[in-house]
Amino acid sequence: MKYSKATNYALHTMLYLMAFTPDKPVGVQQLADRQDVSPTYLSKILTKLVKAGLIESASGANGGYRLRGRKEDISFLDIIHAVEGTASLFECCGSEDSRCMIHQVMLQAEEAMERQLKNTKLFELAKEVTALKET
């Protein structure tokens, strides 16, 4: 299974904000440099994360982006939905008939994956990254 580069950048950006600068705003240029991506491209991704309520932006000399709300509650699925939306990954090429066995298997697999991503909090990974940094 593949997900977009935008989702990859969003996950890495959120991990960085959570692990290294949870309360301090970070500029888009610094975030873009860390991932070797265009600040313009990353800005579009950050806008989606702001709209989803996961981060907030602050303008001015000390402005930038920082986490919003309880960082312990942010799941991988929250970030993926912010960037990709909530549409199903699989579209059955047959009829829209709910009795399609292939469609049922794919939906069950997608539901299991979404449960895993919802239950996996980015904060747990951020704690590991922070611990590695301190050693």
Explain how this protein is built.
The chain is mostly helical and 135 residues long. Helix content is 58%, strand content 6%. The protein is built from six helices and two strands; from the N terminus they run αααββααα. It has a two-stranded antiparallel ribbon with strand order 1-2. α1 packs across α3. The two termini are 34 Å apart. The relative contact order is 0.17. The model has no long low-confidence stretch (mean pLDDT 89).
What's the helical proportion of residues? 55-70%
Principal-axes shape call: elongated
Number of strands: 2
Strand/helix succession:
HHHEEHHH
How many helices? The count is 6
Low-confidence stretches: none
**Structural class given helices, strands, pairing?**
mainly alpha
Order of strands across the biggest sheet? 1-2
Our estimate of the beta-strand percent is: 5-15%
Overall radius of gyration: 17 Å
Mean pLDDT: 89
Separation of termini? 34 Å
Major β-sheet annotation = 2 strands, antiparallel
